[in-house]
Amino acid sequence: xxxxxxxxxxxxxxxxxxxxxxxxxxxxxxxxxxxxxxxxxxxxxxxxxxxxxxxxxxxxxxxxxxxxxxxxxxxxxxxxxxxxxxxxxxxxxxxxxxxxxxxxxxxxxxxxxxxxxxxxxxxxxxxxxxxxxxxxxxxxxxxxxxxxxxxxxxxxxxxxxxxxxxxxxxxxxxxxxxxxxxxxxxxxxxxxxxxxxxxxxxxxxxxxxxxxxxxxxxxxxxxxxxxxxxxxxxxxxxxxxxxxxxxxxxxxxxxxxxxxxxxxxxxxxxxxxxxxxxxxxxxxxxxxxxxxxxxxxxxxxxxxxxxxxxxxxxxxxxxxxxxxxxxxxxxxxxxxxxxxxxxxxxxxxxxxxxxxxxxxxxxxxxxxxxxxxxxxxxxxxxxxxxxxxxxxxxxxxxxxxxxxxxxxxxxxxxxxxxxxxxxxxxxxxxxxxxxxxxxxxxxxxxxxxxxxxxxxxxxxxxxxxxxxxxxxxxxxxxxxxxxxxxxxxxxxxxxxxxxxxxxxxxxxxxxxxxxxxxxxxxxxxxxxxxxxxxxxxxxxxxxxxxxxxxxxxxxxxxxxxxxxxxxxxxxxxxxxxxxxxxxxxxxxxxxxxxxxxxxxxxxxxxxxxxxxxxxxxxxxxxxxxxxx
Length: 628
Known about the structure:
The chain has 23 helices and 14 strands. By secondary structure, the chain is an alpha/beta fold. It has three domains: 2-85, N-acetyl-beta-d-glucosaminidase (Double Stranded RNA Binding Domain, 2-Layer Sandwich); 128-417, Glycosidases (TIM Barrel, Alpha-Beta Barrel), CATH 3.20.20.80; 428-618, Four Helix Bundle (Hemerythrin (Met), subunit A). Helix 6 (201-215) crosses helix 8 (247-264). The longest helix has 33 residues, at 524-556.
């Protein structure tokens, strides 16, 4: 396809040249003439009448979304068409967590997401960086953690700017800093293991260093200062030095000090809102309907900081409506941050992602919320492939350009923008949404993760797994993902890793259940078969999964952080080898009992009494493998 763009495209031509390679068109003076008109209306529009093509746009990002709509219409062979859209939000885009889960995306990976965002029409992104950026005064900040250099950040910002996408720094200026504060270099500003010491002058010297470092390589003046989930604020070293003070007062005092720094450097800050709600709750919960925030506290809050309401959990519009209105009582309309549920293991929960996002964004449109963030967290290892989330990005994008979401258009736009198939990506959910899980996995269980990592002789989750028919279930899923991988294009590895996970789970899911049953029935031949054939074969499948997962990690992430996943695979393989040895010793008579298999299997206390365990350290064993 050859296109000749007419009009003032000086600020667009670099982006056009980049996207031409992705979408198979060639800028050519001999091609179809496309009149490009920048107008004052927020609407973007492409039309073809009597052979004349016109593209109208307001903001640069709207041009690239409109360009996609144009190419899509031309590919459909339409001789005449008129497609128009009205943006529903003035800011809409993802936040990628490149700290908590140890996975720091390579800059080229970030650029691939930027190109996808451009054609989707998403206009903002954040890299959530607790310590994943360089602070020149602090050698231990981000040490051996894959931190971005200032040149890398500047290059990514330039690339995003080319498409009209804003790169907003997103850091922490109070808590969530365990990987920083563990170093003795920061001992004098530590309240507890992850929260800084409020009121300490050295704390604010350090915060200024962080803010300057994070802001210096980007164009925008907007800045996310974090300040969420400071669970023990004022209860550690601060309490020893100063005695008890309310969290409300500490939050406001600290916020005022941080905002003195942002004002000094001409920045426009935003912050998570949860600590105010938690402080007003008797249970410390964010979503406690009985919480009360005193009028005095609201009056003392600075007015030059935007409040970000984050909520990934609710599926009913009434709750979002209530909580947005509670946020408005602070004096302004909040930013809303929803979630693309990628952070509970290998599997992106598309059932809950769709339910929560549709409910939340429908309400945001009605309540006049103008700025939206789609969060992708990396909790506990970032086991889920980043590119599993592209359908979630498309979902946020389509909400951003339609008063009411059309699934038909979502499907079509997803196929065009990414080359992926809607149904293939939606089927990712079934790896965790196994028989017995609530529809759409609204409680966000993660059974595949606990089945994979639990020790076969300990079986902490086996009571919940018995009788589920999971061998056949995962065998069928393995075949499905083999098909999806074969047609997955650039997303082949998303499905290939999941296919190999399913191959492991055909054996591993019910391994402990089967071993206990055979042991208690004294089926020595069955136990011998497990020791001689089945478990050694499973070890081979685990090694295949590890190799595929490893290769994918190094393709999209920096090297740092993979060692954590290596340790998990290594522990799993060694636990399987130990299981073989224990079974062989029992079958041969070398030992007369396997006390691990004699212990009663108690139900694991998860949501719905089923399988939900957020953190790896609690999955393989009931013994302590990490300090609390």
